[in-house]
Design brief:
Blueprint: E1 22-30, H1 37-45, E2 52-59, E3 66-71, H2 75-78, H3 83-102, E4 112-118, H4 122-129, H5 138-170, E5 180-184, H6 189-202, E6 208-216, H7 220-228, E7 245-254, H8 255-260, E8 267-276, H9 290-298, H10 302-307, E9 310-315, H11 321-336, E10 344-347, H12 348-352, H13 359-373, E11 380-385, E12 391-399
Parallel strand pairs: 4-5, 4-6, 9-10, 9-11
Antiparallel strand pairs: 1-7, 1-8, 2-3, 6-7, 8-12, 11-12
Helix pairs in contact: 1-13, 3-5, 9-11
Protein name: Beta-ketoacyl synthase N-terminal domain-containing protein
Amino acid sequence: MNTGSLSSPTRAPGPTLPGDTIAITGLGMVSAIGSDVVTSCASARAGITRWRELDIQVTDADTLEAVPLKGHEASSTTFGFEGFARWLRLGDAALRDLLAHSGLHPPAFARIGIHLQLPGTWLEEIHFQGSLLDRLPEAERERIRRDRETERTEKREELTRRFLPELLAMNHLPLAPRARVYSFGGAATFSQVLAQAVEALRSRALDRCIVGGIDSWVDEETLTQSFELGLLRTPDRPVGRFPGEAAAFVLLERLDAARARGARIEAMLGPVASTLETGHRFSGRPLTGAALFQAINACIPAEVRQRQEVGLTILNLNGDEPRAREYGYTLVRLQEAGLLASSRRWYAPEHFGELGAATGAVSMCMGVRGFMRGYARSPTILVSLLDDDRPRGAFLLRDSPWRQDTSGVTSLPGRHS
């Protein structure tokens, strides 16, 4: 059923906003606790988790028995698939969900683009550097590095040649090659992806843009690397992350384009900011929270500060002690600046596990569904993104000023029941 015109801003009174305001008009998602965005976010809201035993086993020091690691696996979607095929399965499920959720039809395909984030190679590189490489002669090390660089380049070229064409073909979504954009990196890279999409919309290169991320930390190669780097929680390691997997997509449109097709306005995208830390998770440099503070500070306008409208933060604390310490430093800086230190917080990894490149899009889905179902209890949501690598990011989500309850009566943002 097409739900694209259930709550068009042309049918309800509301504020006058510039035509280049960025509206969120569709969501799509698949995760370990839901095969679509509605089920995934409702399950997270209810505190549901779904654990699966993974292929790696460790010895429990107390019982001396082999114990499998646990994680959050979207087994109904990904069982039996690895690598490229696993990402494609996740992406296909999430994109199908978005197309059904948003009411997009072929006439709207003409000026639509897709900006997709996939995992970068940072984890692989750190894992490789921690191998026996340093024990080899310099000439041998240099040769291995060159070979690996060539191999990575070839893999990246093959991935970018095949992935989006296959994903789009599976969903009968014909997009021109120039409208397909890839980005690679961890959670905080998503802010850069959003900023690129916003620029394409406001420059009128596109009318609407699908933005999303796909990642799997339970995929065999990533799972092994993260375990050997000591990032995962085990019976003998009380801090660390549980691996997860997900894909999520969000449809962004200029407000004028959304109005023209009678789209349902689910939320608005506010300012987006990105920064870089001086070091990364394994660099040995202290992470002081300065970069994340700068990103948050940059994306909160003066009027939002004055009204104290941000009553909820979504962030990706995942059980990793250095990440928690960094966010603690960020909170100190926020408190000193009079910003957000006491806001409520939701943690995406609590329900979905570590999601890497999918974290930002999943966080957007959580926030928008919170608006739509009335449990966000805030007209504005801050999404803060930490990372193992250097990037840090933040952006604001705003509730739709044309929110309607089931009786068709317009509700004020953040006040619906």
